[in-house]
């Protein structure tokens, strides 16, 4: 599959594997949906891998084929922007376990039927290993990695697992492991999906009748964590919907209710419920320190990678203290690291929204490294 979308090219490749997973299983073959922008230069030194967040995909800067909306990071990626196809060869791959072209619960197993819940349990490191296979296929050996939220987790994993391949790493609004609160919010979402009668233990593909209600509630609960209290108050406060009747009911009486319901309903058109279960679990399992003897600094010993970390002062999902702990580990490991906390009213979602200072930080960091 290949077709142009503005300045990006959407592709899918099936690689023979095998891909050895952290859970002990082997996945073969492995299909990866991805997009590329720009051209790889002569010495293959201008490659940038963008790692997407939980509900993101490879359509980072081109029109989404399902929603028709612009890519999720067009503020960062594009002509004249910090990540620029005129200078960089940009790759964004749909993560393993997702539902936009990469191997996941909805793809066919060896018997021709969707894996559903037979798909093997995956980790963030498994996602990174699959990306490494793709980059090998593309002829990219050394690269810069950039990502926010779960994308930042992948960037950290890249730097720890393939230190010789990562020249620079940009981690935005992320963490080296999930807190109990993070896990708790994810579990609420998973239970909402599994409590939907249409989930059917994950076997809903043949009926083409997915657990949309459960997935919508999961998205609503998660979306609250992406915002800030001040942002919600400023945008909605306690404003009521315009209604002819003021009688009590279970319709959306408050504007914030209507907003969340819209977020949930629009999400189910582009995402798979089983993928949501698998990817949130992968995020919850992620603990980079545990992977390296319980000490985060061990993940970066001897690294030559340059690091840039950015947090936001209103992000309570991945608060600034999470970034500071990563910076402290990098300092202890003797790694080159810069860090800045930016002010924004947007909460965790700030990395996706209009925060000009973020773009200046990333642009300066990349150019300082020769990109």
UniProtKB/TrEMBL annotation:
Alphabetical keyword list: Acyltransferase, Amino-acid biosynthesis, Cytoplasm, Methionine biosynthesis, Transferase
A Pfam family that the UniProt record links to this protein: Abhydrolase_1
Top-level taxon: Bacteria
Subcellular location: Cytoplasm
Enzyme Commission number, as recorded: 2.3.1.31
Domain AB hydrolase-1 positions: 46-353
Residues involved in substrate binding: 219, 349
Keyword Oxidoreductase tagged: no
Predominant localisation class: cytoplasm
A molecular-function term among this protein's GO annotations: homoserine O-acetyltransferase activity
Role played: Transfers an acetyl group from acetyl-CoA to L-homoserine, forming acetyl-L-homoserine.
Subunit (UniProt): Homodimer.
Family: Belongs to the AB hydrolase superfamily. MetX family.
Protein name: Homoserine O-acetyltransferase
